[in-house]
Amino acid sequence: MPGKKAPLRERFDAKVLKGDGCWEWQATKNNKGYGMIGITTAIGKRLAHRVSYELHIGPIPDGLCVLHRCDNPACVRPGHLFLGTKRDNVADMDTKGRRVVGINPDNKPPRHTEDDHPRAKLTVRLVEALRHRHAAGASLCALARECDVNKTVMRRALQGKTWPSAGGPLAVSQPKKYESYIGSTHANSKLTEEIVRSARMRHANGLSGQKLADEYGVSISVMYDALKGRSWKHVT
Predict the structure, then answer these.
(1) pLDDT tens digits, residue range 103-126?
(2) Rounded CA gap, 168 and 159, in Å?
(3) Which pTM does this prediction carry?
(4) Are 25 and 15 in contact (CB under 8 A)?
(5) 235 and 183 in contact (C-beta within 8 Å)?
(6) Per-residue pLDDT for 94 more than 70?
């Protein structure tokens, strides 16, 4: 049976190197350099400087941060700690020149918009061109497939729900209508009319459905539906 844990104050003091200046935390630290100490199995680990404040000064009111006067994350000396709000914390970081650019007072990551999003496949100029093409008759699914995005992304771009700074005519929102997909106009289709026509001919000449499915990168059920005419019914 594991031994009983020593009292928190005793364990805390054993992990601190006390000096004339900062009291340096000697045990586990997080990726920002703040000390961490285990409390109980249920609670897990907590920030050591917050625990220090509670042990030496008193309870921390809800919603308040424990800030460092010394600007040393590993310091747990109570005389170097003071209470403040999240905005006080940000203001303190700004004063000391150590706030990461792009982090706001509520500690939320920056929002990426339009062209500056790291995973954006569309651009303002491209969206404008797509809107003109859609107005001229190009289908939503064909445009989505061409740009390698899903139908929802393309629909929202064409309707102006995203990319508001892009020009071009906006598509009319039709929430109760759903496009029917025929053959290769489906945004996710790996087959085309030409492939299906050729596959049916080759299958009639003895090539197995499994080999055709492997060749074109589709499941055997998809291939057999195409070969038997349960799908791609318009291909003759």
Answers:
(1) 444 444 444 444 445 556 788 888
(2) 10
(3) 0.41
(4) yes
(5) yes
(6) no
CATH: 3.30.450.40, 1.25.40.10, 3.40.640.10, 3.90.75.20. Which one for 8-96? 3.90.75.20
Q: Amino acid identity of 166?
A: A
User: Residue 208 to residues 192, 204, 214: CA-CA distances in angstroms?
Assistant: 19, 9, 10
Written as one letter, the residue type at 4 is K
Find, among 64, 11, 68, 81, the residue nearest to 40 by Cα: 11
Q: Return the SS3 of 213.
A: helix
Enter the tokens of residue 11.
């364990």
Q: Report the sign of the C-alpha dihedral through residues 154, 158, 160, 161, in that order.
A: negative
CB neighbours of residue 74 within 10 Å: 19
Give the length of the chain: 236
- Written as one letter, the residue type at 13 is D
Q: Per the structure block, which two tokens stand in for 123? A: 């651009």
